[in-house]
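Q: I'm writing up a methods section and want to include an example of the input and output format. Could you take the sequence below and give the corresponding predicted structure tokens, formatted cleanly so I can copy it straight into the document?
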Amino acid sequence: MKPMGKRYFLTGLLVVLPALATIYLFVSLFLFFDNILGRYISKLTEAYVGFSIPGLGLLVFLILIFLTGLLATNLIGKRLISYFEGLWLKFPLIKNIYPPLKQIAQFLFAHKFHEGLQRVALVEWPRKGMHILCFVTNQTGPYFEEKLGREEYCNVLIPSVPNPVTGFYVIVAKKELIFLDMTVEEAIRLIISGGVLNPRDLFREQIQPQGEF
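A: Here is the clean output for your methods example:
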């Protein structure tokens, strides 16, 4: 392939691949959530109207989530949910799985989580002289501070590359963290890139140049 042809091909690849990956992710998520109820709703629509309706399962699923949230915000609804949760937790395996999953879901979607994850920092990891981007999720509180020497400590999530959702939970002294003027979204994009990109490449308008590397 000639140099110009190779250049055009690589340029086209850089345009097409992200678009295809985005479409693939969107379609996969759509099919996953639509299939939760869609498999049952499709049988009903095929029986009554003669064909299935794509997306109807997702629509019903979203409506059910909304109605559940509406129910859970009033006193009677809270009591009903507590009652059914009590029955649910009587099963041996479920009582070991459901409570921690509920705590994680509440934490992830609570306002407190979004406030906590707005702190992006650098910490020396995995050894002195090496730094990694991390998310400060919360302060540890008095229990660990008493055990570790009465300093201020933070709960820190050290994300993995290229999937920042997974990683390590560590406790770090607050004085050892270097807090950055960077949003969580910006940090996640840098982590996903694996260091190929840097803040000036991704966010030229938001971040002023810091000098040459």
